[in-house]
Amino acid sequence: MFTSFFIVDDLKIWIEKRLAKNLNPDDGSRQVLELVSKHLDYYEHIAKRSISRDIDRAMYRELNEIKEMVESLDFEHSNDVGENVKQKVESFTRLLKTMEQRYGEGLYNSFCDVEEEEEDDGDAAATSKVIGVSEVYQKLKQNVFCNEVTSLVGMPGIGKTTLANKIFHDPAIVEYFDHRVWIRVGRKCGVKDIPRRILAEIDPDSLQTLPAEEAIHEYLKTSLKSKKYLIVLDDVWDKYMAHFLDPYHRFFRHDLEHPFLHRGSGSRILLTSRMRQEKHIGRFNVTMMPLLTEKESWNLFCEKVFCGRPCPHRLEKAGKKISKNCEGLPLTILAVARLLSQDQEKSTPEYWDEVAENEHHLLFKEAYEEISEVLLPSYTYLPRILQICFHFIGLFRQKYKIPRSKLINLWLADGFDELNLDPRLDYCAIEYLLELVNNSLVVVYQEGISGMRLNVKSCGLHSSFWHLSNKKARETKFAMVLRSRDDGLGDDIKGQRRLSFHNHVLFSIKDVHQSVEDNCASTTRSILCFGPYHQYQIPICFGLKLLTELDALSIRFYDFPLEVVQLVRLRYLTLTLNGKIPASISQLSNLQFFIVDQHQRIKYHKEPSYLPVEIWGMKELKHLQATGSDLPEPPCGTSLESLSTLLND
């Protein structure tokens, strides 16, 4: 993705070099170039913000044509190409504006809409002491020496700033570089603001005498050219920052040299960021900041709770379990440690045992709430479509390793009607998942490599983000997780579009069952049974006639629940079933994903078992998986044209 951005950038540089040759103002070619340049500013704005492959692909194709036409302009003799370029550019701009109106703001990130900058991203406060990352530290230090631009990437509160600060003050670094500059960037600082910020650090008095951008660049170029310097850009939110900082890129137009980072000078730039940089030129390195191991988490926990003293033996077993439940994020560990140590009543072995045995304990909830302000910018930065995908991942159980195929199928079946997306965007689902991974919101548990591309096999949310996801989904009425009777009877359930049950016993509680059907009948589109496997049949809320998704794979049914065939809007249905599938299943004409598993104690029949022949009439089926049942021979002239996946084991 984002290939169109680099084409826009290259074309802008080419045009600006041409315009710098002082062409006659009345020259028709100059007028064409000025018109194209004006439109390119709009194209760059769209290319940087869009996460839509649809938009990106259209821009890539059209911009290549525009680039070829512009480069064929005759600058000495007038020709018809200039008029063709004008028409092409104006037509393409109209097309982009139409696409913007169609997709709305759902496909754009919000980095241009930030009103104020947060004071702290959580990394600096995570810990003043680097614990357990000596291997990463040495790797990062080597990368800084070997690469012109190095990006340190990881979750908020993981310790990126702390580690970068240690590199900044490392004796070998101090000795090697003539100048070291630390700039905290944040979300509002753009790439063109960086030279001024650097000058303010190395020679603040000169800012008064060098107000113009060109003068600042020239001053930096002259004063830094013969010196080696390290520039640390902390908390970068522009994913194209590394691209602009590369010495090959003409950061400053009109043939002026790069104001800093001269190739071969030995100077270096280190970025810290929550997101991976988009980069395709130069010597550039990405160092991923890992979560702490269990041992490292325990050491940090003890340091903060006991101030360096040994942990009392009676608290050690529970304490190790508590620190493990923080899942290696220093920010969470420190919040939990602070809550445990600030109150004498929370220092008893009984209380620690209580916290250790319940990952949903109030103390953890208080800690997640406390650190949510640090995590929140990662969420608010996302375009609406990625916020929705983030919410959906949070509907699975805490710490659950979600198979990618299941997640993507649920997304596609859901359709996210809130955004009224064009159905052709279905193939972007993988891109949405990778965007969440690249923004450090989603943890990849299992991966493979497909060429140069990350292949996610299973993923999930860190518990700190899982808490934030649930909270925001509930507040926006996108979805609600139900774990207790109070959840089913509270006001929050009213108007929810999706319900995720993490405790299947709730279906059997009469007032909860009634509350769901009374409060959600006109709004709920999905019931997702994501709790632990329940081997006894229970009464699911089949009265919600607007359901498009019903995932009941973790509940055992003795026979096929005939109420399901009345849910004619269903696009996604999963069941664990002992009995046969009835012919009436064909009434679900909108069904796209149909998965039927067998209860683990049921053995296969010796004779072949077949799905009903009426299954061949379900033309919308894309994914069919029926454990222990084969697809029967089709009636003459029939086929499942949409089917792409067929499994029977």
Give your account of this protein's structure.
Helix 2 (28-49) packs parallel to helix 4 (81-103), helix 3 packs antiparallel against helix 4 and helix 12 packs parallel to helix 14. Strand 3 (229-236), helix 11 (241-245) and strand 4 form a beta-alpha-beta unit. The protein has helices spanning 3-19, 28-49, 53-71, 81-103, 123-126, 134-146, 160-168, 171-176, 194-202, 213-224, 241-245, 294-306, 313-324, 330-341, 349-356, 362-380, 384-393, 404-414, 429-438, 463-475, 485-489, 510-520, and strands spanning 149-153, 179-186, 229-236, 268-273, 284-288, 402-403, 443-450, 453-460, 480-482, 498-501, 526-529, 549-557, 572-577, 593-597, 623-626, 645-647. The strands form 3 sheets. It has an 8-stranded parallel sheet with strand order 9-10-11-12-13-14-15-16. Strands 2-3-4-1-5 form a 5-stranded parallel sheet, with helices on both faces. The chain is built from 22 helices and 16 strands. By secondary structure, it is of the alpha/beta class. 41% of the residues lie in helices and 14% in strands.
Class from secondary-structure proportions: alpha/beta
Name the strands of the widest sheet in spatial order: 9-10-11-12-13-14-15-16
What Rg is obtained from the alpha carbons, in whole angstroms?
29 Å
User: Helix proportion of residues, in percent?
Assistant: 40-55%
Report low-confidence residues grouped into runs of 5 or more. Answer: 111-119, 250-257
Oligomer: single chain
Report strand %: 5-15%
Counted by DSSP, the helix tally is 22
Using the alpha-carbon principal axes, give the shape: flat
Average residue-wise pLDDT: 84
Q: End-to-end distance, in Å?
A: 36 Å
Major β-sheet profile? 8 strands, parallel
Total beta strand runs = 16
